[in-house]
Specification:
Helix 5 packs across helix 7. The N terminus is likely disordered. The protein contains 15 helices and 19 strands. 45% of the residues are buried. It folds into two domains: 191 residues, Flavin prenyltransferase-like (Rossmann fold), CATH 3.40.50.1950; 210 residues, CoaB-like (Rossmann fold), CATH 3.40.50. The strands form five sheets. The chain has an eight-stranded mixed sheet with strand order 12-11-8-13-16-17-18-19, with helices on both faces. A five-stranded parallel sheet has the order 2-1-3-4-5, sandwiched between helices. The chain has a two-stranded antiparallel sheet with strand order 6-7. It is an alpha/beta fold and 416 residues long. The two termini are 41 Å apart.
């Protein structure tokens, strides 16, 4: 993510007190860039390093970037009468562990506090964001996955690693998440700590990702949606106290820890999952890139290859958004997304009216960085009253915060 885009986080980070905990992995060098970005945005940053982290990056780098001494020795003579790890935990509005090794994940999950880093993490009363990075086999180890699940259930925020080339030379999941993704998670966590649970007691139902419409057991029609926007909205809604259910097509992304995740494949599957869960839902957000057409019939066996080509008859799928809006159990607020390549605003306005929606989020797929699978988005939010709000290109978590802000305003108007 470019410096221009990460600048979208400056307002959220200005003046915030952040402790960065660096543990012993090759990705420790990336924590230098994170500290630089945070201090550049006006945050007050303190750095904690484990003994193993010092084998990868020197203290001098973090001392220069943060403007403060690096902490890490439990038995170092204190500069005052304060107990160092306790005072640091009290200083922190948020603790961010970058990278989070399998070792530190296991320690914190087990309540083990045998060094400065693990003690600060366990002593803090603010949110804790952990960004794992390790070999793909270690990341997929059931013990590590179990530790992450336990931590999420306890309220820790896990920024899942990305798939890519690892230090060992292999490809797979385990590479530290991008700077933009980590910054976005920090911003969302800080946003949560400042808010008074503005969506507490509200049930939010979100669709995310693509659908797959099968021609035969091995071939299907789909699209490049990854579910990033839908899951970003889920994280923001959770941060504001909502009870969140995500009905998602196939995606490799880790679901938000406190959300109920319902996996589906086809548009018909998604329609059934959504319509059966509308009871007591206050907000429905249809983010999923649902196929508008599906093969009229599906072959039971793999269709044999042929040089003569293949004609496939397609039939329209059910309109999930329209059916939700027309349901006797219609949520207070129904939000749709319109991903278009031309006449973007006109298409969004037409969708708003035709499907009786309260809000449509429109984005132009031809704009670089605003399409499927990107870490960023650029949208126009169109309300039923005709007003519009443009959101400049920024991380999807930041876009999600603006969308949830708009939804909260509509909820307030509806309840007056």
């Amino acid at each position: 993510m470019s410096e221009e885009l990460t600048g979208e986080f400056d307002t959220a980070l200005q003046g915030r007190r952040i402790v960065i905990t660096v543990t012993g992995g090759i990705a420790a060098y990336k924590a230098c860039e994170l500290v630089s970005r945070l201090t550049g945005a006006g945050a007050e940053v303190r750095v904690v390093m484990t003994e193993n982290a010092r084998r990868f990056v020197g203290e001098a780098s973090f001392r220069a970037l943060s403007g403060h001494p690096v902490c890490g020795d439990m038995f170092e003579e204190p500069a005052s009468d304060e107990i160092a790890h306790i005072s640091l935990a009290e200083f922190a509005e948020i603790v961010v562990v970058v990278p989070a090794t399998a070792n530190i994940l296991g320690k914190v999950a087990g309540g083990i506090c045998d060094d400065f880093a693990s003690t600060v993490i366990c002593a803090t009363r603010g949110p804790v964001v952990m960004a794992p990075a390790m070999n793909w086999a270690m990341w997929q180890n059931p013990i590590v996955q179990g530790n992450c699940q336990k931590l999420q259930e306890l309220g820790y925020r896990i920024v899942a690693p990305e798939v890519g080339r690892l230090a060992c030379g292999e490809e797979g999941p385990g590479r530290l998440a991008s700077l933009g993704t980590i910054l976005a998670e920090i911003a969302v966590a800080l946003d949560e700590s400042r808010r008074d649970s503005s969506l507490a007691g509200k049930q939010v139902l979100i669709t995310a990702g693509p659908t797959r419409e099968y021609l035969d057991p091995v071939r299907f029609i789909s699209n490049p949606s990854t579910g990033k926007m839908g899951l970003a909205l889920a994280r923001v809604a959770l941060a504001r106290g909502a009870q969140v259910t995500v009905v998602s097509g196939p995606t490799e992304l880790e679901p938000p820890g406190q959300a109920e995740m319902v996996g589906v494949e086809s548009a018909a599957d998604m329609h059934q999952a959504v319509m059966s869960r509308l009871d007591e839902v206050a907000v429905f957000i249809g983010v999923a890139a649902v196929a508008n057409f599906a093969p009229r019939s599906r072959a039971e066996q793999k269709i044999a290859s042929s040089e003569e080509g293949l004609a496939v008859e397609l039939a329209p799928t059910a309109h999930i958004l329209a059916d939700v809006a027309a349901s006797p159990q219609r949520p207070q607020i129904v939000v749709g997304f319109a991903a278009e390549t031309e006449n973007v605003i006109e298409s969004a306005q037409r969708k708003l009216v035709d499907r009786n929606l309260d809000l449509v989020v429109a984005n132009d797929l031809t704009v670089p960085g605003a399409g499927f699978g990107t870490a960023t988005n650029e949208v126009t939010i169109v309300r039923a009253d005709g007003t519009m709000r443009q959101v400049a290109k920024s991380a999807k978590e930041q876009v999600a915060q603006v969308i949830i802000d708009e939804i909260e305003q509509l909820l307030d108007l509806d309840e007056q």
